[in-house]
């Protein structure tokens, strides 16, 4: 990715001392620049021996008419580079990186001499254009030490034994636009009944620098890859400067490269809130091949039907995409961090086992973090299948389907049986499991939607897939 041009760039002041140098740079951007050069790069040189860099910017937000994101690169600007040193979007007006510390969202550590760039993301520029001022300060001073590796997290695996594990897949800390520290977020997740939590800050994984010690909670590092054409969660990134690039515009086929990068790093990729109503949040990219999941339930319950419809389109195309739910948690006062959440059937409470369960579709989307999931089972020809499984049947072979709901929350509710995205049967919930009978006539998939007595959605299982033997 080549740097975009800098418009009306003028060096206003340069102040140099024996130990510090400060530069002030003035820029102007127009709506055309926001459309044709979404990512702008302000270059600056870092002298040998630098131990700290401070960056700051200011502009008139004009009551929301203008919005500019902030980030920092210390190396290559090509797509997929590991040169991103940090990203805070619009959450902060200034940031620093040093040998032994950094602003949340930025990585501490060695500061190589040479050309660096301040990233300005032109999220929104109003008709009149916007003036921006960037200030960069490099300095040298004695430091206590350097950042060495990452602090330990909870043991992995945390618990042995196959079970349904309750988890949150989409939550933010102070390392992006969240309001809780990483330990505070983890404590909130455990208090809401979750067994695991994936932390997904926007365009960085710097939350890994924080020590987390919350008993019985597995924490997994992730990233919300926040592109101008929609957001993509990546689960399972680990290691200093772990990062999946976000600088892909709507319609750019390189969106596939981001999914490939997630897989190459051992992680999974999931489309977030595909019908969100915030600017540049809805999914407008093509759906990448082999994307692993789609977030059908987010904190906005109004988009559930739209998310289900998009998921069914993908499933009917033959794509094996897991449906998930998540709260997209940012701050206290919102819905609880477990609303929505998932239950994942995994062999143990460990990162790889949870990722394996998500990939395989052994998942139930739940409205809260504590209610046990319903059990969907299909019996045919002496075999038993559960969500994520595929059964091969003869034409017209009988399928006996059972949905058990072992929790008081389901009392008086209703279960809907869905075949290839269409409602085909319903039953009232009582003390006994609901039973349905169907006969195999074509390839397809079935799942269960469970509602409370008031009609509110409580649970949506992932499908059992049916193949007709030829």
Helix/strand/pairing class, anyone? mainly beta
CATH fourth-tier homologous superfamily of the largest domain? Metal-dependent hydrolases
The overall pLDDT, averaged over residues, is 93
**In whole angstroms, how far apart are the ends?**
49 Å
Tell me what the structure shows.
A hairpin with a 3-residue loop joins strand 1 and strand 2. It contains 5 helices and 28 strands. The strands form 4 sheets. The protein has a 15-stranded mixed beta sheet that branches. The longest helix has 13 residues, at 304-316. The chain folds into 3 domains: 10-139, Sandwich (Jelly Rolls); 159-366, Metal-dependent hydrolases (TIM Barrel, Alpha-Beta Barrel), CATH 3.20.20; 375-468, Immunoglobulin-like, CATH 2.60.40.10. The chain has 470 residues and is mainly beta.
Q: Brief description of this entry?
A:
With 470 residues, the chain is mainly beta. Helices cover 10% and strands 39% of the residues.
Itemize the secondary structure elements and their pairings.
Blueprint: E1 10-16, E2 20-29, H1 31-36, E3 39-46, E4 52-59, E5 67-73, E6 84-89, E7 94-98, E8 114-124, E9 130-139, E10 159-168, H2 182-191, E11 196-199, E12 218-227, E13 230-235, H3 255-264, E14 268-271, E15 293-297, H4 304-316, E16 322-325, E17 341-349, H5 351-360, E18 363-366, E19 375-380, E20 383-385, E21 390-393, E22 398-404, E23 414-419, E24 422-428, E25 434-439, E26 444-451, E27 457-461, E28 464-468
Parallel strand pairs: 10-11, 11-12, 14-15, 15-16, 21-28
Antiparallel strand pairs: 1-2, 2-9, 3-8, 4-7, 4-9, 5-6, 5-8, 10-17, 12-13, 13-14, 17-18, 18-27, 19-20, 19-22, 22-25, 23-24, 23-26, 26-27, 26-28
């Amino acid at each position: 990715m080549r740097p975009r041009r800098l418009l009306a760039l003028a060096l206003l002041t340069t102040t140099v001392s024996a130990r510090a140098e400060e530069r002030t740079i003035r820029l102007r951007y127009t709506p055309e620049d926001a459309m044709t050069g979404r990512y702008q790069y302000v270059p600056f040189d870092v002298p040998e021996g630098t131990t700290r860099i401070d960056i700051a910017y200011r502009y008139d937000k004009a009551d929301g008419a203008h919005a500019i994101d902030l980030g920092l690169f210390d190396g290559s600007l090509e797509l997929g580079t590991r040169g991103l040193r940090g990203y805070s979007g619009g959450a902060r007006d200034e940031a620093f990186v040093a040998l032994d510390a950094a602003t949340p969202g930025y990585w501490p550590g060695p500061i190589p001499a040479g050309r660096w760039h301040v990233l300005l993301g032109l999220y929104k520029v109003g008709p009149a254009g916007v003036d921006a001022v960037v200030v960069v300060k490099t300095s040298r001073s004695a430091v206590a030490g350097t950042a060495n590796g990452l602090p330990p997290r909870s043991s992995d695996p945390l618990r042995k034994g196959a079970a349904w594990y309750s988890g949150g897949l989409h939550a933010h800390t102070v390392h992006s636009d969240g309001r809780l520290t990483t330990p505070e977020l983890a404590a909130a997740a455990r208090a809401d009944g979750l067994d695991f939590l994936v932390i997904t800050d926007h365009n960085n994984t710097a939350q890994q620098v924080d020590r987390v010690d919350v008993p019985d909670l597995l924490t997994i590092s992730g990233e919300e890859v926040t592109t101008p054409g929609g957001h993509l969660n990546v689960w399972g990134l680990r290691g200093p400067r772990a990062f999946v690039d976000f600088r892909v515009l709507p319609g750019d086929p390189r969106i596939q490269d981001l999914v490939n990068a997630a897989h190459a790093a051992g992680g999974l990729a999931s489309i977030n809130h595909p019908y969100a109503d915030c600017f540049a949040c809805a999914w407008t990219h093509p759906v990448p091949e082999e994307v692993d999941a789609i977030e059908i339930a987010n904190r906005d319950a109004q988009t559930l039907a739209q998310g289900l419809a998009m998921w069914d389109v993908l499933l009917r195309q033959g794509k094996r995409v897991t449906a998930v739910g998540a709260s997209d948690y940012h701050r206290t006062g919102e819905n609880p961090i477990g609303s929505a959440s998932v239950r994942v059937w995994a062999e143990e409470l460990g990162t790889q086992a949870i990722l394996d369960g998500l990939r395989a579709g052994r998942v139930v989307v739940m409205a809260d973090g504590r209610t046990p999931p319903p059990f969907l089972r299909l019996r045919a020809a002496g075999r038993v299948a559960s969500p994520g499984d595929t059964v091969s049947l003869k034409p017209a072979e009988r399928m006996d389907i059972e949905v058990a709901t072992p929790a008081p929350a389901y009392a008086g509710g209703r279960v809907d049986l869905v075949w290839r995205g269409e409602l085909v049967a319903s039953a009232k919930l009582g003390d006994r499991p609901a039973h349905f009978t169907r006969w195999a006539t074509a390839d397809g998939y079935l799942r269960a939607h469970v509602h409370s007595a008031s009609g509110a959605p409580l649970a949506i299982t992932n499908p059992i897939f049916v193949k007709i033997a030829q």
